[in-house]
């Protein structure tokens, strides 16, 4: 029997929480791994640059902004609305975090 985890959505990320933190927690949730056991985010992308990029978007450019990368076997997409979507190594597992 194959276990399929539902696609959890977490609404209302604290606006003081950096995007990089949301990414780490979304990957941890998707993979069922403690965030401290994941590879460092900087193995895939500079966390400070990630935070600065999405913090600096104006409303007009935010709708077109999207960044994707891979970490811990997961495909991660961050969009200008602050949504973080993580597709796990198992294609039936996907997690989305909305700001």
Q: Short description, anyone?
A:
The chain is of the alpha+beta class.
Protein architecture, described:
With 99 residues, this protein is α+β, with helices and mostly antiparallel strands. The chain has one domain (9-97). It has helices spanning 19-31, 47-55, 59-62, and strands spanning 9-10, 66-71, 74-79, 84-87, 94-97. A 5-stranded mixed sheet has the order 1-5-4-3-2, covered by helices on one side. The longest helix has 13 residues, at 19-31. It is globular, with a radius of gyration of 13 Å.
Map the helices and strands.
Elements: E1 9-10, H1 19-31, H2 47-55, H3 59-62, E2 66-71, E3 74-79, E4 84-87, E5 94-97
Parallel strand pairs: 1-5
Antiparallel strand pairs: 2-3, 3-4, 4-5
Tally of DSSP helical segments: 3
Percentage of residues in helical conformation: 25-40%
Strand content: 15-25%
Mean pLDDT figure = 79
Structurally, the number of domains stands at 1
- Characterize the largest beta sheet: strand count, sense, and whether it forms a barrel: 5 strands, mixed
| CA-CA gap between termini | 34 Å
What best-fitting shape do the alpha-carbon axes yield?
A: globular
